[in-house]
Structure formats: structure tokens, C-alpha cells
Amino acid sequence: MNEAAIETHGLSKSYRDKAALRGLELNVPRGSIYGFLGRNGAGKTTTLKLLMGILRRDAGEMRIFGEAMDSEAAQVEARRRIGFVSEDKELYPFMTVGQMIRFTRSFFPGWRRDLEEKYLELFRLPLNRSVPKLSKGMRTQLMILLAMARGADLLVMDEPTSGLDPIMTEEVLQALADLAAGEGVTIFFSSHQLTEVEQICDHVCLIDDGQKVLDGVLDDLKSQYRRIVLVFDSAAPSALAGLKGIDHLRRAGRTASMLAHVDVESVVACTQEFAPLSVEVHPVTLKELFMDHVRGG
Amino acid sequence: MLWYKAWLETRWRFGYVAGFILGTLGIFQLVGISKQIGPGLRLESTLMFCFAALYLAGSGINTQTFYSARSSFHGSMLFTLSLPVSRLRLFMVRAALGAFETCFCVCLMGALTLVWLSGPVSTGQFFQYGMRVLVCTLPVFALSTLLACLLDEMWQFTGGTLLLLLVAALQIRFKFIAEFSPFRGMSLLSYPIAAPVPWGTLAVSLILSMILFFASIKVVREKEY
Q1: DSSP H or E segment with residue B185
Q2: Over 60: is that where the pLDDT of A10 sits?
Q3: pLDDT value for B57
Q4: B176 touches chain A (CB under 8 A)
Q5: Which end is more exposed in chain A, N or C (fewer Cβ atoms within 10 Å of the end residue's Cβ)?
Q6: How far apart are CA A287 and CA A291, in angstroms?
Q7: Nearest-by-CA chain A residue for B72
Q8: Which CATH code of 3.40.50.300, 2.40.128.50, 3.40.50.720, 3.40.50.10540 fits the domain covering A6-216?
Q9: How many CA atoms, within 13 angstroms, populate the side-chain half-sphere of residue A25?
Q10: According to CATH, where is 3.40.50.300 located in chain A?
Q11: What is the band of A297 on the pLDDT scale with cuts at 50, 70, 90?
């Protein structure tokens, strides 16, 4: 029972001539809060739709809780264990909040009344209000409630906090963290809000142009990487790019900034041959990792 | 609950179409058109009006609510597709309710049209005519269902109208098409109430409906959203 919640191997998908995913490799551990990051058009939403069976893959393998997603029956079965929050947060415009809840509840025998009541109270959602009369934030809250209360083992969320104010964002993030910690639910979510991801995720994966460029345990990644900033008395030498152990080098006038991920001390020692005026080593943030890996340094 | 959802989706349009039929026939009766034109023409024009309403029903019942690409419905469609239900079941529930509502409208239209007939109509003739109109309406419903699965909302009505106009034009040009045309099958001018049942036309309508229906299922199962 130690299989990953989500596993993909060589997952590929194209829209006509444009490749959206190019051999994506994913391994989302059970019980983790997994941040799935990338620029617009990097392939995040395509991946989420493939996982939900809304799109069909061109090539590759996909497993959810160890079950191969190679038939519609397998996908239907998997969807019993998945709560999905789509990017646009659209629900049925002809239903009220109460009707949406009753409708969704009917498909999930393991529906959690306790969570339904808890989030109805937390989000202050009026049961009799129709969906079109809800604000975007309230629609997001309702969608999150519908995803959480279905008793899912896996939540797949596309920008779950978009449209929420900072206080509500905090409450939603806390609810997600509680769900993962208390119920062992795996949460796989894409977001552009790096601070949110840094706040609650234990694993991250960065994708760019349909391919994974970095993944791992967030704390490990942050401890593996260091930013080294060098200041020179004249233009920063281009030969710095030849240093071993650096991922990305940026030169701007007399300053050079690089991301080092192996044996930082020896990288710093190697920089001495270029006679920098000063050398500073900083811990990295997720944003820096994102910028350096996704933007290509 | 899928039935409940389908009913909530379609109830206003269904009511509109039923109201359209009642209103149209009621107005015809009130203004006394029946006294000014011959019974055949009278029925033909009534049928044309009602047929337009049914066509609206067919597209309306499917349009916007099934697999349309309009943003809000597209979004709620993502929610629907995330439920643990096969696409086939989603489609069947939706199409079955649409078919039921269309049948209701057809029966309403047929009953009112026959009530309007001045001559006596036996119960057998009444049901025979009802079945004839029902079967001949099926391809129109199946076509609107297929278009709802295939096209963006803005093209569904236009596309359907163009296709039906094409069929109408072809039946004028080619006799063998006219012979089996569903339009002709439901017309009291072509087949008066006491005329023998046009089995060939009905068979063609049924086969055409099944082809369109299975094509819709194939599209729904394979389409990406």
C-alpha cells in the first residue's frame, strides 16, 4: 500500500502541432501536499485534465493509487477517490448552493457531513443562494467544499485560491493542511502563488515547456541550493559560466549571481581565481528556484 | 440526481416550447385563420410553426446545457466530467430527458392539430398520426444532439438550420430523397390522416436517427474538453 498517489511516466500530449506535455515524469507520494508549478502554458492544466480523464494522453503511462488509467472504467473508479477543483471554478448556474451540495453528495457514498457542515460554517455560504449570485470567491469556496467533503483520498486542484481574499486564502490553506495532516489526504495543486506553495507544500515539482525541470522535497531542495553573489571591480567575467556545480549564472555589470547545488564551499573557493571584491552566500527561496529553473536563468 | 440536474437545466426551455406550441395554435384559432385558408394549407402552416418550435426545442434542450463551449457552461462541464460517472451515462441521461421532452411537445402538437381538424378522427388514426410525427421528428432531435456535441453554441442553431435547409432543397431536386424525407412523412398534405402509414419513410427516419445518435455517442466518448 505504499504506492504513490499519482505516477506518470513519459506522459505526452499535443494539441494539433503544439506539444503541451513532453514525457512528463511525476511521482506524488501519498499524504503529501504537492505543489505543481510552472509558467502559463507550461502544461499544468493539461496534466490535471489528463489525471481527471477529461483529456486523453498521446503517449505514456498514468497511475492513480497504483491503478493504471488505461480505460474509462478505471478513470471512473479513480474519480470516486478524487476531489477536483477546476481553474475557472464554474458550477451549475441553475442550482443553489444547497442543490449543488445535494447533487454532488449523491455520487459519493463516503460523503463527509462533518466536513460539509464545518466548511459551510467556515465559508459562510448561504444555502439558498443561486450559483450565479455568488461572488467568484464564494464560488471558489463552494467548489473547495464540494471537493473536500466528498471523502476523497486525493484532491486535484487548479489554482484553488484564485479569487479569494487574503483572509479566506489563509483559511483555505489551513483547511488543506489540516486535511492532509488529519486525514492523510494527498493534495496535488497547481498555483502561481509561490508564497502559498512554500507555506503548505512539502513537495514541489517545477515544469517548463511540458517537461519536469525540478522536483523533490521542498526543504531538501532549499537546503541543497545556495545563491552565490559575487561583486567585481569591473564587469563580471563570462568565464564564470564554466564553473562546475553551478546551475544558472546571471551577470549584470559588476555583479554575478549564480545558483549552486553541489558542494557550495568548493564552488565559492573556485570563484576566488576571478578575484571578486566580495562573495556572499544566501539561502534560496522557492521563488528563486522557480525563476532560475523555469525562466532558464 | 443526474435526472434532476437535467430537468433543472431544461425546464425553462421545455416550458417555453410547450408554451410556444399552445400559443401559436391558440392564436391561429383566435384569429380564425382556419376559416380563411383550406384545411390542408392550414394544417401545413400549423405544422411548420410547430416544427420550428420543435426544432428550437431540440437545439435548446441540448444547446447550452450539454457540451457547449461557452465559458460558464464549459466550466460546469469540467465539474460534470470530474464526477465518477461515465461519459456514456452522462450522455444517455441527458439525451433521454431531451427525447422525452421532445416527445411530449410532439404529442401536444399532434393532439392539438387533430383537435383542430374539422373532420372526424378515430382514436386509431389519432395514435397513428402521433406515431408518424414522433418518428419523423426523431432525426431532427438526433441531429440537434449531434450538433450540440460537435459545435460551439453559436454554430449549433446556424449549422442545424443550414443542414435542414439543405435536406429541404435536396428533396425538391431529387425525388428519391423526397420519397423518404421525414418532413414529408409528418405532412398531412403528403399523407392525409386516412392514408396508409408511410413505412419506408418511417424506417428511414429511424435508421437516420440511430446513425446520428451513435455518432453523438462516439463524439462524446472521444471528445476532449
Answers
A1: helix B182-186
A2: yes
A3: 52
A4: no
A5: N
A6: 6
A7: A90
A8: 3.40.50.300
A9: 5
A10: 6-216
A11: very low
* Of residues B156 and A120, more confidently modeled: A120
Q: Which three cell numbers stand for residue A131?
A: 450559483
pTM listed for this prediction: 0.81
State chain A's mean pLDDT as an integer.
88
Q: Is B5 on the interface with A (CB under 8 A)?
A: yes
Phi, psi at residue A262, to the nearest 5°?
A: -130, 130
| Residues A177 and A165 sit within 8 Å (Cβ to Cβ) | no
Q: In the prediction, which pLDDT does A227 show?
A: 87
As a whole number of angstroms, the distance between CA A68 and CA A249 comes to 41
Beta carbons of A157 and A201 less than 8 angstroms apart: no
- How far apart are the C-alpha atoms of B9 and B63, rounded to whole Å? 10
Cell of A207: 515544469
Beta bridge mates, A227 = A259, A282
Residue A90 is nearest to which of B79, B224, B225, comparing CB atoms? Answer: B79
Fold for the domain defined by A225-294:
Alpha-Beta Plaits (3.30.70)
Q: Tell if the CB–CB gap between A103 and B74 is shorter than 8 Å.
A: no
CB-CB neighbors (< 8 A) of A82 in chain B: 82
Q: Which amino acid is it at A154?
A: L
Radius of gyration of chain B (CA): 18
Q: What is the DSSP string of B65-122?
A: TSS--SHHHHHHHHHHHTSSS-HHHHHHHHHHHHHHHHHHHHHHHHHHHHHH-SS---
Q: Provide CB contacts within 8 A for A20, sequence distance 6+.
A: A13, A14, A43, A46, A210
Rounded to an integer, what distance in angstroms lies between the CA atom of residue A100 and that of residue A97?
5
ipTM of the complex: 0.84
Q: State the Cα–Cα distance between residues B84 and A81, nearest whole angstrom.
A: 9
User: Nearest to residue B110, comparing CAs of B224, B32, B175, B193?
Assistant: B193
> How many helical (H) and strand (E) elements, i.e. helices and strands, does chain A have?
10, 14
Provide the residue type at A105 as one letter: R
Listed in sequence order, the residues at least 6 apart from B14 whose beta carbon sits closer than 8 Å to its beta carbon are B57, B61, B101, B104, B105
Pick from B4, B5, B82: CB nearest A79? B82
Q: Give the position of cell 508564497.
A: A195
CB-based contact B87 A72, cutoff 8 Å = yes
A 10 A CB-CB count for A202 gives 17
Intervals of CATH 3.30.70 along chain A:
225-294
